[in-house]
């Protein structure tokens, strides 16, 4: 069969040649080897039959059955083919790649260029023409294949000259050629005008303006690269994520990737609030309230009260006036309007900014979840992933030792996860073992649900006690009682659930993590449900003459800050102190493992608090961003120093999808329901905020529509849009139906792709069987011809030996 082309230049090169200028006569060896290669390839067709015959002799005689019939060939009988079969296989296009003379010339050119770059090449100006080596001695110009290659090159150059510069560059990038060949084609395809523009000025010097322009471009380019490298250095996940993935695996890495996603969500939520709400109100501050403002004591950072009540941090600071002209707040509580202008309506801006921010977050969440589903549940099977990881995972652009060591760790950890996943699939349990596991699982679930109900009842009873005690706003320390109780329960419940989960003895760590996530999620959502009822159902009635929106915002701020403090305490005592006790006292080298379920649920809990409080504390996303950045550095440091890799490695292929899904449906959906109820049903405070004179926050839109109707016919389309797209419920149902239809279509597309892939695999299998069938038929035809030829030869010999047979 056709062998792969081995191009070796027999150019003698000695160590003493380095540093000396080689003579042009030394290149004769190169051209001799090239001429020899051409001749060998020209004789390939003549020698092919001999090579096939030698392979047939080496394969031996075909096997036969007891009846004398030849055994049909299978896929494993690759070497038992006849001469005719081997000749047909050698003529296949896949076996003749690289045998054209154009490919030989290209390989020769590349090798000689690499060889000449090793040493300094002498100039041939001082060498006579007779001494210069040339390919004309070997009659290469008379080769029709070479002439055909040259004609194709000229046609390609002409085609490139007819294109624009952008199209030419795009076409050259797509060509499978070397950089030197692409550079030559680009230079040859330049038009004379383009070459004239690219030439330097007189005496080889550019004009002053050109040099100044080039210097400015280079300076701006360097400045841009410096700023880009600085921004990359400020990212907390630039190098740490690769290090974490290589040392601890994809399971622990999924937590930090989820934290990175939450940072992006909070930044996207904060930008419109800063642009259209906080910044505008800070530029046009409302009149100061009578009385002296409290001074800053430092306790406000923990409680959120005190001097923070009179800042843009809370809902009560924002006015219900227009902000494009000075307005003194009248006794009736609302400024007048001008009929001939459309001012910046602060109540409307507050409502629409929060609504649009939530809508953008919803769209981003759905898009992120769909992308995560597409990456995690890819169409097709995972067969051969071990070989792909071993042979195709290395990035050959890595040159630094630190980066190469990190990539080695990543590949090794990924292989451990793949092998562990494969071993777990091969260990089924008996019927008694499964029954015992189901019984233990049911018992553990009953205990976990009982713990959740007990903690929820405790939070409800303590919140009622706080209402009855009527703590005043001056006692800021007492306001921390309910958040402290909630954070203590959130800290202790995951440890109890972990101890109960140890009784289950799950074989799969993935299932163990999923069960822990479900139990912690149920617990935290139940606590948050009781708190939402406490704020909107109980506190609104007890704080009738006060700004209850500020109180709810302060409660959410306190919960966010105390949650961060308890995360630090959990990291300190749960990881650092336990490692020290294990190493110093217990004399164990085992470090604690990173609790993925508990830490992920802490992130989801904190993000839910942010979404619940964005209506009452517009700057709460900024607090959440600072909190997430600090948690990233704290968790990363504690992970590297105090934790070890999971004892049972497992592949977290779907963890990011599960995290984003939990963030979307229980967390974001619950926060959206809470805020919609507050906007449509709860009466705002009459003493503070932009909705102080309205029955509900939603009435701000109706008031705005009435102002637009009185403003004139120029904006009459805006009331129509509000009436038919905002107040009407049909667009909401329509958008929901379209969303469900898109999800259904995506599911059907994925199913169709899987079915097509199965059909293609079956077709590939059938193609292989067809090839085996054709080879068997060819082999049988050849055997019949061979037997008939042998029979005729034997008959002729018999007739020659026995003349009487005529």
Could you give a quick summary of the protein structure above?
66% of the residues lie in helices and 0% in strands. The chain has 806 residues and is mostly helical.
Q: Can you characterise this structure?
A:
This protein has helices at residues 28-42, 44-59, 83-90, 101-118, 144-161, 165-174, 179-188, 192-198, 208-234, 240-248, 250-283, 300-303, 346-376, 385-392, 401-425, 431-469, 481-501, 509-542, 548-585, 596-613, 620-642, 655-680, 699-711, 717-727, 730-801. With 806 residues, the protein is an all-alpha fold. It has a domain at 234-284 and 302-322 and 343-423 and 433-695. Helix 10 packs across helix 15 (401-425), helix 11 packs antiparallel against helix 21 and helix 13 runs antiparallel to helix 22. The longest helix is centred in the C-terminal third of the chain and has 72 residues, at 730-801. It is extended. The two termini are 45 Å apart.
Can you lay out the helices and strands and say which pair or pack?
Layout: H1 28-42, H2 44-59, H3 83-90, H4 101-118, H5 144-161, H6 165-174, H7 179-188, H8 192-198, H9 208-234, H10 240-248, H11 250-283, H12 300-303, H13 346-376, H14 385-392, H15 401-425, H16 431-469, H17 481-501, H18 509-542, H19 548-585, H20 596-613, H21 620-642, H22 655-680, H23 699-711, H24 717-727, H25 730-801
Helix pairs in contact: 1-4, 10-11, 10-15, 11-13, 11-20, 11-21, 11-22, 13-22, 14-15, 16-17, 16-18, 17-18, 17-19, 18-20, 19-20, 19-21, 20-21, 20-22
């Amino acid at each position: 069969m056709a062998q792969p082309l081995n191009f070796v230049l027999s150019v003698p090169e000695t160590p003493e040649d380095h540093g000396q200028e080689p003579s042009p006569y030394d290149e004769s060896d190169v051209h001799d080897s090239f001429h020899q290669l051409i001749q060998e390839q020209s004789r390939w067709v003549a020698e092919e039959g001999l090579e096939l015959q030698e392979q047939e002799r080496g394969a031996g005689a075909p096997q036969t059955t007891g009846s004398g019939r030849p055994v049909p060939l299978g896929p494993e009988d690759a070497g038992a083919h006849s001469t005719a079969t081997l000749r047909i296989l050698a003529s296949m296009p896949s076996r003749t790649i690289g045998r054209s003379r154009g490919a030989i010339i290209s390989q020769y050119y590349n090798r000689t260029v690499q060889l000449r770059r090793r040493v300094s090449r002498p100039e041939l100006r001082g060498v006579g023409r007779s001494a210069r080596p040339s390919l004309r001695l070997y009659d290469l110009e008379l080769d029709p294949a070479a002439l055909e290659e040259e004609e194709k090159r000229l046609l390609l150059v002409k085609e490139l000259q007819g294109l624009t510069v952008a199209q030419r560059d795009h076409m050259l990038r797509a060509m499978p050629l070397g950089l030197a060949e692409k550079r030559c084609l680009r230079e040859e395809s330049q038009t004379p005008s383009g070459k004239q523009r690219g030439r330097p000025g007189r005496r080889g010097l550019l004009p002053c303006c050109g040099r100044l322009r080039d210097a400015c471009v280079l300076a701006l380019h360097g400045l841009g690269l410096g700023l880009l490298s600085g921004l990359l250095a400020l990212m907390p996940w630039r190098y740490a994520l690769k290090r974490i993935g290589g040392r601890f695996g994809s399971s622990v890495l999924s937590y930090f990737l989820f934290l990175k996603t939450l940072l992006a969500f909070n930044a996207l939520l904060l930008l419109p609030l800063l642009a259209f709400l906080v910044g505008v109100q800070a530029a046009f501050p409302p009149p100061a309230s009578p009385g002296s403002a409290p001074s800053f004591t430092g306790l406000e950072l923990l409680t959120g009260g005190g001097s923070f009540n009179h800042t843009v941090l809370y809902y009560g600071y924002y006015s219900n006036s227009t902000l494009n002209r000075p307005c003194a707040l009248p006794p009736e509580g609302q400024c007048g309007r001008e009929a001939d202008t459309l001012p910046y309506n602060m109540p409307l801006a507050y409502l629409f900014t929060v609504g649009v921010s939530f809508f953008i977050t919803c769209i981003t969440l759905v898009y992120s979840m769909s992308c995560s589903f597409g990456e995690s549940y890819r169409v097709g099977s995972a067969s051969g992933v071990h070989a792909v990881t071993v042979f195709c995972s290395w990035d050959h652009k890595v040159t630094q030792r630190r980066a190469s060591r990190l990539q080695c760790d990543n590949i090794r950890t990924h292989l451990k996860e793949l092998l562990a996943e494969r071993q777990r699939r091969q260990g089924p349990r008996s019927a008694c073992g499964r029954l015992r596991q189901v019984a233990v699982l049911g018992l553990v679930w009953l205990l976990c649900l009982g713990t959740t109900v007990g903690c929820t009842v405790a939070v409800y009873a303590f919140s009622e006690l706080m209402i009855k005690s009527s703590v005043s706003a001056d006692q800021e320390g007492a306001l921390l009682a309910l958040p402290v109780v909630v954070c203590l329960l959130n800290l202790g419940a995951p440890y109890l659930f972990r101890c109960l989960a140890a009784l289950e003895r799950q074989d799969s760590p993935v299932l163990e993590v999923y069960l822990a996530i479900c139990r912690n999620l149920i617990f935290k959502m139940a606590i948050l449900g009781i708190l939402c009822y406490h704020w909107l159902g109980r506190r609104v009635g007890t704080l009738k003459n006060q700004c209850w929106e500020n109180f709810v915002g302060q409660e959410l701020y306190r919960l966010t800050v105390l949650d961060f403090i308890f995360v630090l305490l959990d990291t300190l005592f749960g990881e650092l102190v336990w490692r020290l006790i294990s190493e110093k006292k217990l004399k164990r080298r085992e470090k604690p493992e990173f609790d993925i379920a508990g830490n992920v649920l802490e992130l989801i809990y904190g993000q839910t608090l942010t979404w619940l409080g964005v209506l009452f504390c517009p700057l709460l996303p900024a607090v959440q961003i600072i909190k997430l950045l600090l948690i990233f550095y704290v968790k990363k440091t504690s992970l590297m120093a105090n934790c070890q890799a999971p004892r049972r490695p497992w592949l977290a292929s779907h963890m990011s999808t599960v995290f984003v899904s939990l963030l979307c449906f229980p967390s974001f959906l619950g926060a959206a329901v809470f805020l919609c109820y507050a906007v449509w049903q709860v009466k705002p405070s009459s003493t503070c905020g932009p909705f102080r004179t309205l029955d509900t926050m939603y009435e701000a839109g109706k008031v705005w529509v009435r102002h637009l109707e009185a403003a004139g016919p120029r904006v009459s389309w805006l009331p129509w849009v509000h009436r038919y797209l905002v107040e009407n419920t049909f667009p909401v149902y329509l958008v929901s139906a379209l969303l469900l239809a898109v999800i259904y279509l995506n599911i059907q597309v994925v199913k169709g792709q899987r079915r097509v892939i199965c059909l293609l695999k079956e077709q590939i299998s059938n193609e292989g069987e067809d090839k085996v069938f054709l080879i068997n038929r060819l082999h049988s035809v050849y055997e019949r011809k061979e037997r008939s030829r042998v029979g005729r030869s034997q008959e002729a010999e018999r007739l020659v030996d026995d003349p009487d047979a005529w």
